[in-house]
Amino acid sequence: MQDIEKLEQELLEQIGNVTDLEALESLRISALGKKGSVSLMMRGLGQMDPAERQIVAPKLNKLKTIVGDAIDNAKAALHAAALDAKLAEERIDITLPVRPEAMGRIHPISQVMDEITEIFAGMGFDVAEGPDIDDDFHNFTALNIPPEHPARQMHDTFYLPEKEDGSRQLLRTHTSTVQIRTMQSKKPPHRIIVPGRTFRCDSDQTHTPMFHQIEGLVIDKTSHMGHLKGVLAEFCKAFFELDEVTMRFRPSYFPFTEPSAEMDIRCTFAGDHIKVGEGEDWLEILGCGMVNPRVLEHCGLDPAEYQGFAWGMGIDRIAMLKYGIPDLRAFFDSDLRWLKHYGFVPLDVPTLGGGLSR
Amino acid sequence: MKFTISWLKEHLDYDAPLEALSDRLTSIGLEVEGITDRAKELAAFRVAHVVEAVQHPDADRLRVCKVDTGSEVVQVVCGAPNARTGMKGVFAPSGSYVPGTDLWLKPSKIRGVESNGMLVSEREMGISDEHDGIIEMPEDTEIGASFAALAGLDDPVIEIAITPNHQDALGVYGIARDLAASGFGTLKPLDTSPIAGKFKSPIGVKLNFEKVSPLPCSKFVGRYVRGVKNGPSPKWLQDKLRAIGLRPISALVDITNFVTYDLARPLHVFDADKVSGDIQARLATAGEKLLALDGEEYDLESDACVIADDKAALGLGGIMGGETSGCSETTRNVFIEAALFDPISIATTGRKLGIESDARYRFERGVDPAFVEPAMEVATRLVLELCGGEPSDVVVAGEGPKWQKSVSLRKSRVKELGGVNVPVADMITILDRLGFAPKETGDVIETEVPSWRMDVDGEADLVEEILRIHGYDNIDPVPLPTETVVAKPAVNARQRRVRIAKRALAARGMMEAVTWSFLPRAHADLFGGVPDEIVLVNPISADLDAMRPSLLPNLIAAAGRNHARGFSDLSLFEVGSEYHSDQPDGQIMVAGGIRTGQTSSRHWAGNGRKFDAYDVKADALAMLEAVGGPAESVQVVTGAPDWYHPGRSGVMQLGPKNRLAAFGEIHPRVLEAMKVKGPIVGFEIYLDNVPLPKSRDTARPPLTISDYQAVERDFAFEVDVDIPAEAIIRAVRGSDKKMITDVSIFDVYQGDRIAAGKKSVALSIRLQPMDRTLTEDEIEAVATKVIGSVEKATGGSLRH
């Protein structure tokens, strides 16, 4: 009896002192293996008389369980310690910089074009396009700008060589050419926006020989200046992501619209930053008006039946306004630092549901 | 167009603050661009009394003055020779800004003597070039009074933008008339009553044109005034002209400038003694020259309208007078010209000769055809008043154009076009005030267009007139009704591909650039060249003269600029047009890109490698896939355009006639010519050539996957070096199209351990059974087929 207690004490002490799994295994074999100390005692039960066996057997079983559990616990502890040691050795310097990954950028012009498209899609507009190289008719004559009209002098037009018949192609000075192409090729109603490249022979701090415009055109039988104001008000709020934008329509003049207007929005000049939507100053952002009946006639539409409105706006300019980009010329310089700073990651796809900008 | 408040008030009776005036001008379409209030700018400059001026102890030319400013007595060191005890001058205290010298005054010591503020000259105040001494004010001037007010500079100058249709507002009177029409003040009457002639003009006038229509000069009114005395004009006139930035010259010249700006009516005054015989308007003769008032000699073309005497041209009608017949101090007799010129003729001649003048500016926009004789009366009155003399009868040639026109307005159009209800009575009042003499007949308002509004010729113009006076602000914005509640896509398939191409390339690590559509023709020549028809006649500079035939040259030039900034690793792309003719079909949409330098910078976890042709091949394939093109079935063959390296480039095509893309290393000769460091690899994807999917079926084909174990087997073949890998892959795939689901080349070797002229290509195939697990024999059978197929197709052999 005392042997059992003594053995238990000894074994538990030995288990407690074991420091590696191998030693623990040999200890397990020496105690619980076939010829182990506990097993040998269990084997002794057979020679005992039933009464004695009845007393000793439970004790031995208990010893077996206790020793077995102790070994399992020791094993688990040793495993945990070994893993801890391994993990400690595997430590890395998490402050090392990550591997380089290339992430490109979308140019602000593309991004803003996508934003504008998204907004006007919501109002039922389609995107229309036309050629950069066009003729005098589409760029001027059809837009009610006859050859000697002073407005032609406001457009510093790039011309291509004169042909034998005296005509010459030009680089379109505005996207309004596509108004004409659309009205000539399809039947009304029309509701289009026309983003694209435009060209004027002008280069200084705030002008580049190539720039981007977006034109809008609505032609049907009923649309009027109230709708024009409504469309542009919605656009401004959505584009500048503001609840309210205070606007002002001023009478102006364009040969292709009558009545004509220019639209200003309220803004504040704070240092070199412009805050749009409120303030004491006005900022001109676009020209617009009701399509001149002469333009409709040039496109074969009867002004007694059809009417509508049009507007034109600089994409580069509103991109600069919205995103605080200071210099227009840098748009076309392809400086990596500029593209990275002002560009947009490709996953920033503007949507109305998900938000136009982050 | 500039004017001062006091000038406006000579024509318009009103009582309203400056801001209200400014708002009204803008709201009726005369946009205020700026208001200069000199009184505010010069507020610090006040009259002061020099109590004492004594010699500076250490400087011969300086005086130390005690100056009484009205509020204190300060010490000022002054260098002006006229600074003396008892005088009254103009003083600016420390802390004020001196516009003429662009300096802020602060207390200082001049040669050891304290000086606070400054006694100023006219030049220092920025009001003239006078700098001989400080300004002297009359002795009885009140100390502390504002100099600006005393000098008549307290008159705000307003600058407005004039749109090309508003020729009527190119004179102060016209601006007053438009303001009055909008209900802002009352227009004062203009005195144009005829002045009786005292004698018959010794100079006659005639229009001398044959077979020209319309007449370049359709009316000429003249008047002789004898015995005038020309000299400086009076202060009121000089002040007006200076306020709007004009330089007073002499009374006779100042009168013409004044009438130009006051009544939008250019005039000319000849020194009558320098005129030989009668005056005529005619076309220039071939080779005729004119020395104009700007000192330049102009060669005239035969479509230029000149005003001439018996001998020679005296001036360019409606544009600029001539030097020989101009007025001077000694002029005693004058001949005043008020004529009407054709806008197109003026614009053409002005543009050809490059002359910008106030007269041209007004005549090419159209001068009031009914205001020729009245203008002569106004001018005569001014000449008599300022220069004296005796007027002749008026001589007239021509009748002027027939300008009268009637335009009718359907009352409903204001609401239909403008979207605003304007009561008919208001429409009539507005038109009446604007001078349109409206008459209501049924549903229509008939109008007679006033002579000063030649731009108005249609119903829409009348709607604009009513709306601008009624106020654009009174038009309520209303939403545009939409056909559908949920928006439909705004872009078509082609436009959508452009958008996708951009985002796909950016997602591949490339930066989107937007470069000019034009480039130096020498660069165009390196990329296939352009026909003469797309070389600009008037480029912004000689190196932006040709339309680009490829997107690559501008991207390569951009790489060069970035290299110069110290960035040698870069990937740039652009999606845009290239141009091959001057017709719409000569413009094609391309996605182009370049990569150069290392794939990534040096790094602890391993360095990058140099970009090579396979990188841009991957870009091109990825792009075809992104835009929904047939990336799987595309053929990759050699034969890229000659701006690519002949041995390291290729094209992707759907057959020899449909080229979808080109890619590869840029030819070193091209880079050398562009002076950009290489190597650079690039690609061009011709988006318009990529076929659009035939249907927009959103359903995908069903997915078939197998639960049976797939098997991989490796092979290495020894083939001639010029056997393309593509041929081997095709042979492998072709040997068992059903079973072989994947072929990948994992090694290509050429070198010592293989025969000369041979290479080893190692590949791995994946066999995927659909209905059972493959047995070793079955696998072996496929392997045998693979080997046979490759050997047959390439003449190579399996390496053991």
UniProtKB/TrEMBL annotation, chain A:
Binds 2 magnesium ions per tetramer. GO terms for cellular component: cytoplasm. Transmembrane segments: none annotated. This is Phenylalanine--tRNA ligase alpha subunit. Its cofactor is Mg(2+). It catalyses: tRNA(Phe) + L-phenylalanine + ATP = L-phenylalanyl-tRNA(Phe) + AMP + diphosphate + H(+). Its main location: cytoplasm. Keywords: Aminoacyl-tRNA synthetase, ATP-binding, Cytoplasm, Ligase, Magnesium, Metal-binding, Nucleotide-binding, Protein biosynthesis. Belongs to the class-II aminoacyl-tRNA synthetase family. Phe-tRNA synthetase alpha subunit type 1 subfamily. Mg(2+) binds at residue 258. Residues 110-346 form the Aminoacyl-transfer RNA synthetases class-II family profile domain. One of its GO terms (biological process) is phenylalanyl-tRNA aminoacylation.
UniProtKB/TrEMBL annotation, chain B:
GO terms for molecular function: ATP binding; magnesium ion binding; phenylalanine-tRNA ligase activity; tRNA binding. Its main location: cytoplasm. It is an enzyme of class 6 (ligase). PROSITE patterns: B5 (PS51483), FDX_ACB (PS51447), TRBD (PS50886). Keywords: Aminoacyl-tRNA synthetase, ATP-binding, Cytoplasm, Ligase, Magnesium, Metal-binding, Nucleotide-binding, Protein biosynthesis, RNA-binding, tRNA-binding. It holds the Pfam family FDX-ACB. Mg(2+) binds at residues 455, 461, 464-465. GO terms for biological process: phenylalanyl-tRNA aminoacylation. One of its GO terms (cellular component) is phenylalanine-tRNA ligase complex. Residues 706-799 form the FDX-ACB domain. Its EC number is 6.1.1.20. Binds 2 magnesium ions per tetramer. InterPro entries: aa-tRNA-synth_II/BPL/LPL, B3/B4_tRNA-bd, DNA-bd_dom_put_sf, Fdx_antiC-bd, Fdx_antiC-bd_sf, NA-bd_OB-fold, Phe-tRNA-ligase_IIc_bsu, Phe-tRNA-ligase_IIc_bsu_bact. PANTHER family: PHENYLALANINE--TRNA LIGASE BETA SUBUNIT (PTHR10947:SF0), PHENYLALANYL-TRNA SYNTHETASE BETA CHAIN AND LEUCINE-RICH REPEAT-CONTAINING PROTEIN 47 (PTHR10947). Belongs to the phenylalanyl-tRNA synthetase beta subunit family. Type 1 subfamily. HAMAP family: Phe_tRNA_synth_beta1 (MF_00283). Tetramer of two alpha and two beta subunits. This is Phenylalanine--tRNA ligase beta subunit. It comes from Sneathiella chungangensis. The lineage of its organism: Bacteria, Pseudomonadati, Pseudomonadota, Alphaproteobacteria, Sneathiellales. The gene is pheT.
